[in-house]
Amino acid sequence: MSRKKFSKIKIGALLIPLVLAAHPNDSTASTKTTTALKENNSSSSENKRTLGLFENPIIGNGADPWVVKHTDGYYYYTNTTGGNVTIWKSKTLSGIEKGENKVVWQPAANAPNRNDIWAPEMHFINGKWYIYFAANGVANNAKQRMYVLESEGSDPFGPYHHPEGTNYGQITDPSNKWAIDGTVLELEGKLYFVWSGWEGDVNVSQRLYIAPMSNPWTISGERVELSRPELPWELNGTPTINEGPQILKNKQGQVFIVYSASGSWTNDYCLGLLSLSGTDPLNPEAWTKKQEPVFQKDPALGVYGPGHNSFVKSPDGTEDWILYHAAKWDGSGWDRNVRMQKFEWNKDGTPNFGSPVSIHTLQPAPSGEADGKLVPALPGITYKYEAEQAIVNHVRIVNNPAASGGKKVGAIDFADSFVEFNVQVPKGDYTLNVQYGSGMTGQNVSHNVSVNRSASKELTYFVSGWDTWRNAEMDVSLTHDQNVIRISKGKSFAEIDSIELVPKETTVFRYEAEHANLKKAEIASDALAANYQKVESKKDSKINFSFSAAKAGTYELKIRYSANADSSQRVTTNSGLAGDVNYSNTNGDWQYTSIQVELKEGINHITLAKGTEAVEIDHIALTSNSLSD
Ligand SMILES: [Ca+2]
Ligand SMILES: [Ca+2]
After folding, report:
1. Residues near ion ligand 2 (Cβ under 5 Å)
2. Could you report the per-residue pLDDT of 562-604, keeping only the tens digit for each?
3. Of 32, 81, 426, 626, which is most buried with the most CB atoms under 10 A?
4. How far, in Å, is the centroid of ligand 1 from the Cα of 388?
5. Each residue of 178-208: pLDDT tens digit?
6. Which residues have a beta carbon within 5 Å of ligand 1, which is an ion?
7. pLDDT band for position 294 (50/70/90)?
8. How many whole angstroms from 534 Cα to the centroid of ligand 2?
9. Nearest ligand, CA of residue 535?
10. CA–centroid distance, residue 192 to ligand 1 (Å)
């Protein structure tokens, strides 16, 4: 963290609120998991449960994520910490970072595996846990080798020791060359070790190797090379790299290795795919490399260097998810955080990871984390202010590509440090969202917030790593024509990116098409769409929004769309046909069209279907006419 220089009081004019009416930058997630409109008192017998949303990153600071779903109903997660093996435990994937955690192993003082402890993986084999990791003992990364730990019982939290008869748990083939990122393939009752290594003793190219195992801590045969960097997308960075092999099996039992290619410090780090035909993974001829990467950067969405992943099922077992790390920003190199998204399967049985979603995209939580399928309402209007444009004292304004507006306020480190926002919004009650970042691991972190010079209240923060922006929220009443919100130093240290004010009495609600129930329609990324995603709707597509309305009445339904031809879609609500909406040819730009709909109190359904041409739908917004009159 930086806490050196500071600026004098910067006299700012009254800030003009940035009114975000369903704007792409409208990150209105006030918490990590949001839910739909509040439950109402409808006596409807329909299911009123809600779909949870979450926002990446799930781990604010970290790389080489590994997660496993255990029979006890918990996920166990680990990633590279460098100096030990730490395990997190959580009922949900989106909640891993806040889960219970424990350092389950630390190296002995002079052990050959005490430095550069990288990419641990946990495998449950024959009733015990085995943790594989790479390390060296001489602060010399050329000595990196693979090691294994064994649990004494079946508790993932240990205790652990090196398996008897091993040399500090080292697991190697006879060549004993440089080795990292080891993983285990179980196939037809046999075990195989798969890892990334050097052919010789010089670091020119990391290749993928496989060897048979006689038990979880012993390699029982020569290594066989499965892949080396050779295609253009594998060759970015020097030395050239294939690493992070991960086993993936489809429903039919076919085996894939998904691996990371190109330099892990580059924007071009990406995932490649090897497919096994037959059942002999030791035969290199049985593996086919896909000629294109299967997951890669998306600069339009600000995603760089996505790679080194693991795979896991949703809590209810119905969905496949990929966890991966990515650079925090363009060129941030090894400054990374951990993200996740759902993936699908192609008709040929290969995995379809799609493209990495924006870090600002709210995604439906894994199936089973939340209870149901109502489309969550997002506020239609929020007011956003950048901290770097506020009045500040004894702080430092710093460029930061991960922050909105490209700047953050840091060094809020002194008794007289503050960031003060002058806000002019309609009088009323608001949720104040503070976008903060803190890397003060192990400390209680907070800021003090005062509104209109009243006594300040403490706003506590969750430590998630520097330059990963999180939301903390607080209720505020803004009763003046101009209101002053001052944020000053609290406990320990944190930085601020921006604040948002969300009216409590929201009259416009937004529902993203990508969160609706879709038939014959695809979700796609789009940097200009709200939530950075849209739905590609075809003639036979159906987009069904289920949501809860607090009041019966006539509503204006606005639809944000993009089209390359004039067309229409049929709008139906609970009560039947509402009418057709017409879409004009927007030449790919986003526009609104609207129609009046009658809604009842409680659960409602709105369906867009029977298109006359393809059209892209971003979201719908509902405004109660009775409220706005
Ligand atoms: Ca900012
Ligand atoms: Ca959208």
Report:
1. 512, 529-531, 533, 618-619
2. 999 999 999 999 979 999 999 999 999 999 999 999 999 999 9
3. 32
4. 6
5. 999 999 999 999 999 999 999 999 999 999 9
6. 386, 403-405, 407, 497-498
7. very high
8. 4
9. 2
10. 49
E strand map for 239-329: 240-249, 255-261, 270-276, 287-289, 304-313, 320-327
Element (DSSP H or E) covering residue 628: helix 625-628
Dist CA 116 CA 136 (whole Å):
6
pLDDT digits (tens, 9 = 90+) for 163-184: 999 999 999 999 999 999 999 9
Ligand nearest to the CA of residue 533, numbered in listed order: 2
pLDDT of residue 545 exceeding 50, the answer is: yes
- Taking only the tens place, the pLDDT of each residue in 472-504 is 999 999 999 999 999 999 999 999 999 999 999
Distance 397 CA to ligand 1 centre (A): 9
How far is the C-alpha of 562 from the C-alpha of 585, rounded, in Å? 8
Mean pLDDT (whole number) for 69-97: 97
Catalytic residue check, 589? no
Q: What is the pTM of this model?
A: 0.91
DSSP string, 15-82: PPPEEEES-TT-----SSSB--S--------S---B--EEES-SBSS--S-EEEE-TTS-EEEE---B
For residue 57, whether the previous peptide bond is cis, meaning omega lies within 30 degrees of 0, is: yes
Query: In angstroms, how far is the first alpha carbon of the chain from the final one?
Result: 51
Place of tokens 């309609």: 426
Give the Cα-Cα-Cα angle 513, 515, 517 (nearest 5 degrees): 85
Q: Is 473 a catalytic residue?
A: no
**What is the rounded CA–CA span in Å between residue 544 and residue 607?**
4
Task: Provide mean pLDDT across the span 274-288.
Answer: 97
Gap from CA of 297 to ligand 1 centroid (Å) = 24
DSSP string, 468-498: EEEEEEEEEEE-SSSEEEEEEE-SS--EEEE
**419 secondary structure, DSSP code:** E
pLDDT in tens, 415-446: 999 999 999 999 999 999 999 999 999 999 99
Cα(523) to centroid(ligand 2), Å? 9
Q: Which of 121, 150, 234, 243 is catalytic?
A: 243
CA dist 432 and 385 (Å) reads 11
Distance CA 306, CA 298 (A): 9
Q: How far apart are CA 366 and CA 363, in angstroms?
A: 9
